[in-house]
Amino acid sequence: MKARTRTRALFSVTAAAALLAGPSTAPALAEQPAVPAPAPSVPVESPVAPAPTNGKTTVEGSDIQQREYWLDDYGVREAWKSATGKGVKIAVIDTGVDGSHQDLTGSVGEGTDVSGKGAANGQEGLGEEPEHGTLVASLAAGHGHGDGSSDGPGKQQGIMGVAPEAEILPVSLWLGDEQAGVRDVNQQIPDAVRWAVDHGADVVNMSVGSNSTAWPESWDSAFAYAEEKGVLVVAAAGNRGSGLTQVGAPATIPGVLSVGGVDRKGVASWDSSSQGISIAVAGPSEDMVGAMPDDGYAEWSGTSATVPLVSGAAALIKQKYPDLTGAQIAQRIVKTAHDAGQKGKDPFYGYGILDVRAAVADDVQTTDENPLGSVRHWIEQNRPYTASPSPSATASSAEGDTVQVTQEATPPAARKPLNETGALPVVILVSFAVVVTGLTVAAILHIRRISR
Questions:
Q1: Where is the composition biased (Low complexity) (predicted)?
Q2: Same domain (yes/no): 370, 429
Q3: Contacts for 176-182: CB closer than 8 Å, 24+ residues apart
C-alpha cells in the first residue's frame, strides 16, 4: 500500500516567488511577510499497517537501526571512531522536540518557544506538524535505548542520530494552522536564530523551507549575527513532491548550508528534493525513519530528514576540531563531498554527495573564506538604502572592512557665482588689459632689438 507522509512547506509567502540570483550576486528583493504553514514530505512505499498517524507510517523500534542505511552507506559509523558529537550543541528550530522520548532522554536541553503559544522549554509539539521537530532531532542526536550497545556509541534499539552524544537545544515555532496569539513568522524566525546563537549553539538545524527564494528584511541581522559568531546554519532545499520546484528561503541565504536529497542509489531525488544554485551538498532523503513523540517511530521522506544528518556531521567535525568556525566546518563538508551530476557544483547535488567519514577524518585545508558566501556582504551590496546590519547588540571586536572616522570634515562655505555678484565683467576687462599690456611690452622690446 502507499501511505502519504506530509512535512509540508514550513511557510508560504503571499507574494509571488522572486528570483534570487545566487549566494553572493543576488539583487535586493522586496518580500511580503511569510504566512506560517507546515513543512513538506512526500509519499513513501510502506508494507506496514495500520494506517499512518498524522500521515506518517508507524514502525517498530526494535529493528529500526537496520533501516538507517545511511549509518553505513554514508560513513557515519566510521566517523564515530573519531567523534560522537560530545560537548557540541545543535539548535533544532522546528515545531518542538519531545525531550522525554526514550531515544532523546538526557540529550535535550532547556530550549525556548518563540511562537507565543508553546511550552517555555521548547519541548511541546506545535502547529500542523507537531511531531516534525522530534523526527528531526532524533536523526541529529538520537542515542537509542535498551540493553547493550549498538555498533557505535548508542544502544541497540531505537534511532541512532549522526551525533548521538550531542546536545539538542529545541526552539519551537508555530507553523501553519494559524491561531490567535501566534506571533508572525517573520518575528519567530529571527528571534529563534538569535536565541540559538546566544545560548551556545554550534550548529543551527532548520529543516524548513518556503516557496520564495527571497527572505524578509527582518531576517537579515539574525543570520548576519550567526555568521559573525561563527555558527553554521543548515537548511532544507525543499521537495518537489510538496510543490516546491526550486530552493526557497532560508536555504537561499548566503552563508547557509543548503541541503538537497538523493535516493538509495545516490541519484537526485525527484519527489524528495528540489533544485537551485544555492544547494551546497546532497544526502539521503528517501526511505527515512525517525522518532515520533510518545516513544513512537515512523517512516518519512524529504530534505527535512536530510538536514539533521548534515547537522550531525557538522557536530562531529566541531567536536574533533573545536576551533573551526561555521564557515570552516562547511568547507570540510563540501570539499569532501563526492562529485555527482555535472562536473563541479550543480543545482541538484551542489558540490556533491555527503561523506561523513571523510568530512570528519580526512586532511582538509581550510581558510577563512566561506564557500557558501556571506550574508553580511550580501546585505551591504543589496540593501543599500537601509541601515547597515547590526548583527549583535555589542559592537564586534573584529576589525571591520572600513576605517573609523574620528573627525568630521568641515564643509566648504557657500559662495555666490561671480555673475550673480556683478564682478564677472570687471574680471574679464582686467584680464583683457593684462593680456594687451603684455603684448605691447613684448612688441616694444622686439622693436628695440631690431633697431640695435
A1: 42-52, 386-398
A2: no
A3: 176/8, 176/36, 176/37, 176/38, 176/127, 176/128, 176/129, 177/38, 177/127, 177/128, 178/35, 178/36, 179/117, 181/116, 181/117, 182/36, 182/115, 182/116, 182/117
Contact 116, 173 (CB under 8 A): no
**Total domain count, the chain:** 2
What Cα–Cα distance (Å) separates residue 61 from each residue in 66, 155, 241, 322, 409? 10, 12, 27, 34, 71
- List active site positions: 94, 132, 304
Alpha-carbon span 160 to 157, nearest angstrom: 8
Based on the fold, state whether residues 355 and 441 are members of the same structural domain. Answer: no
Same domain as 366, residue 295: yes
pTM: 0.77
Q: Which domain holds residue 156?
A: 2-382
Please, are residues 113 and 172 in contact by the beta-carbon 8 Å criterion? yes
Crossing angle of the two packed helices 375-382 and 220-228, in degrees rounded to 10: 140
Residue that is written with C-alpha cell 506518517 in the block: 56
4: cell is 502519504
**Position 112, amino acid:** T
Reported as a single tens digit per residue, the pLDDT across 391-449 is 554 433 333 333 333 333 333 444 444 454 455 555 566 666 777 677 777 777 766 76
C-alpha closest to that of 360 among 399, 393, 329: 329
Q: Read off the C-alpha cell for 276.
A: 537551485
Tell me, what CATH number does 360's domain have?
A: 3.40.50.200
**Residue 89 falls inside a structural domain:** yes
pLDDT tens digit string along 336-370? Answer: 999 999 999 999 999 999 999 999 999 999 999 89
Q: Are residues 372 and 428 in the same domain?
A: no
Residue 104 lies in a domain: yes
Residues 6+ positions from 452 with CB-CB distance below 8 Å: none
